[in-house]
Amino acid sequence: MTGPLNVNEVIDGRYQIKSYIDKGGMQYVYKANDLILKRLIALKTPQNPSAEKRFNRSAIVAAKVNHPNVAKTLDYFEIDNRQYLIEELIEGGDLEKIILQKVKYVDPYLVAKIFHYLAKGVAASHHVGVIHRDLKPTNVMVLSGLHVNSIKITDFGIAKMAEEELVEAIEDGEATISKSRTVVGALPYMAPEVISTPREVSFPADIWSLGAMMFELLTGNKPFGTGLIVIHKIIEAIPPEFPSFITNKAQFSYLSKKLIELILSCLQKDAATRPTADQLVEHCGTLCYPTTERYVGTVKEIRYNSWGFISNDEPDVFFNLDSVYGENPVNGSNVWFSKFPGDPNWRAHPVVCLK
Amino acid sequence: MHSKQLVFDFHVNIMTLAPYQQNLYNWFMRKATNSAVRRVAELPIAIATDIGLVRPENQDRSAILRIQLTANRSSIVVVLCDGMGGMSDGAECACLAIATFLSSCIQNVNLPLQKRLVSAVTNANDLVFAKYNGRGGATLSAFIADSQDGILGINVGDSRIYSIENNKLSQITVDDTILGQLGQTNENIHGQNELLQYVGMGQGIDPHVIAFPKDSPLPNILLTSDGIHFLDKQTMELVIKHSPDTAIAVRRLIELAKWCGGHDNASGIIATNLSSLLIPRLNANLGDIEVWDAFGEVQLVSFQPPCLTGFKNERKMEIKAPIENKPKPTRKRTPPNQDLLHKKTIALEKKNSKKDEKNQAETKKSIPQLQIDFDAN
Predict the structure, then answer these.
(1) Do A210 and A274 belong together in one domain?
(2) Residue B187's pLDDT is what?
(3) So where are chain B's domains?
(4) How many domains does chain A have?
(5) For chain B, how are helix, strand and coil distributed in percent, rounded to 5?
(6) How far apart are CA B243 and CA B264, in angstroms?
(7) Which residues of chain B approach chain A closer than 8 Å at the C-beta?
(8) Cα dihedral B96, B97, B98, B101 in deg (nearest 10)
């Protein structure tokens, strides 16, 4: 176990710690059993005094949002000078761990689905006046691993109400506390106004972050790169280029082009010209994408450099190289795919190589 | 700025750093008092650190390393690391970063300065990342004064290096924060001063190599952690201007930081007369490797000077007896001037100033806390 709590410890006479899950940006996360409602929940408690300062307010802000694509805040309390937040338990992992660390890029079908779900979650948040301000892959939870059954936005640690003063001046000397957080992970997804004019940050900053995340899923690259130079590239906001593999196969090009259009609309330097979350939901609603489950298998053979078979636990699945998004697999490659009924073999589409 | 290619061209196997790295790590991890200030042997350098008034532990680590390579060549490394409080194990990360940085500087003492510094930061970054997977880290500000190769600095994070000329401070590093990178200092806003890079972040680190002003005479240098430099710059300048010597100046800066809230650990190093650091030391034992921090010193002894071994025999080096199993040497740490840090009257400063001089003398006579013998077969 890590952090201040131990297995089987009962908090507030109600939440029994089952196991340590992880550290979030500023908090320890545990799986716990709600002894009254007999269900598993996520219990969060801050890591340090600087996290404590925002913990209560972030709980209040997050609790306002009620949507299937946002992790639900269930309770908040303080005991013995320690704060606790009870949240819906999401069995899975974040987008970074579950998807981006396992595949170089994601096919446009799944990107469209994730985009749609996230846009709905962000729209629900914006409807109640909440700006998340820290949307990035590690704050997006994925249910059921590579099956990607659902998506939920989490960690409203620095979220704000739109009507609030959007920035907080730091008290003298307290600035040093901020080093308990770094922006290394968040920087690639930050909108230009977050960097250069933080007093002007509002709902469109979340839309930019959404566009930046979708660019990364679709292309495997961060839209403005990595490292310190990113700051200046984001401020310039020169539209990033999309690699050709995204559109060079007929099976993917139509949806890819629609996604490129949407992503670029989110990455507009002028915040006022970005679509609203509601508009994004509407646009995503016009996209055609399957919601079939995903599987992992191994390419068994490829014939004539044209088609082959994927083996997994069930009968082999046929695939055509035209159904491969991005780099072609070779014999023995591990692949991620959806499958549809066929005879004599089911057919895989799309197929994406795992790292 | 350095390309990634440059960094990896001279990347060394971190395992070869083990003999010095592990021992230095243990030394930096030793228990210490809440505050200390000292002058460093006969060097024109003063070093100080303080836990502050809020933090439960001091996660800053700073040190001075001197290697005597030949009768005509010595190399001095001055380094300050600020462990990232709130992330995992801030003190451990700072110790790992500084120990790895210094051991790499020893290991690669024959590399050109820039490669030596970048390699040392890269090694520290790799090792901290390997252990903490990006969830902990430290800032690092350092410079090397090498009698053969001159002076060069390096910086990662938001600890700082200032030059001091005519009692004016000029920050010669750029903070790795949004405000720092945009050249803005006027508005302290949450999110704007969070770190963009740190030692331990893993991939993507881009250490800044700092060329020192080439004025003649060379400027004095101040290294600070943010527990000091959150203070108004003009006030810092006044404190330095009106301090009778460097140890008192750095101590007063720390005291002032505490009077202003003491929100964070505070550390500072002031080096004056840099030209003297470039003059080879006479009557020194070849191969001597000495390390000082605000609390004490350690001497690492090799039978052959680094210039002869080239520090390439590290795999053959053996620690003759594990430190833990060795008969414990008489421990005579130069006592930190803690009372200096707690008493506020100027009258006491003079008294303690004399005490400092006495301590310096004691330092020269003191038995090393840790003596490691290497067999360079």
Answers:
(1) yes
(2) 57
(3) 4-374
(4) 3
(5) 35, 25, 40
(6) 23
(7) 54, 82, 84-88, 134-135, 137, 139, 158, 176, 178, 181-182, 187-198, 201, 203-204, 206, 226-227, 230, 257, 260-264
(8) 120
pLDDT tens digits, B212-233: 877 667 889 999 999 999 999 9
Give Cβ neighbours of residue B267 (< 8 Å, ≥ 6 apart). B47, B48, B49, B50, B60, B61, B62, B80, B82, B223, B224, B225, B227, B228, B254, B294
pLDDT for position A248: 94
Residues of chain A contacting B193 with CB distance shorter than 8 Å: 170, 175, 178
What is the per-residue pLDDT across A275-292, written as a single tens digit (0 to 9) for each? 999 999 999 999 999 989
CB contact under 8 A, A179 and B176: no
Contacting residues of A for B230, CB less than 8 Å apart: 172-173, 175-176
- Between A and B, how many CB-CB pairs are < 8 A? 111
Q: What does the DSSP 8-state code read for residue A69?
A: T
Instruction: Out of A67-71, B4-8, B47-51, pick the least confident.
Output: B4-8
Q: What is the DSSP letter of B295?
A: S
Inside any domain, residue A5:
no
Contact status, residue A41 vs residue A92, Cβ threshold 8 Å: no
- Lowest mean pLDDT of A218-222, B102-106, B281-285, B335-339, name the range: B335-339
Domain final residue pick, A71, A88, A105: A88
Q: Residue A255's domain is classified under what CATH number?
A: 1.10.510.10
- Whether A2 is covered by a domain: the verdict is no
Q: Which of B158, B190, B263 sits opposite A167 (nearest CB)?
A: B190
Q: Do A227 and B206 touch (CB under 8 A)?
A: yes
Q: Is residue A290 part of a domain?
A: no
Residue B308 has pLDDT above 50, yes or no: no
Which CATH class for the B4-374 domain?
alpha beta
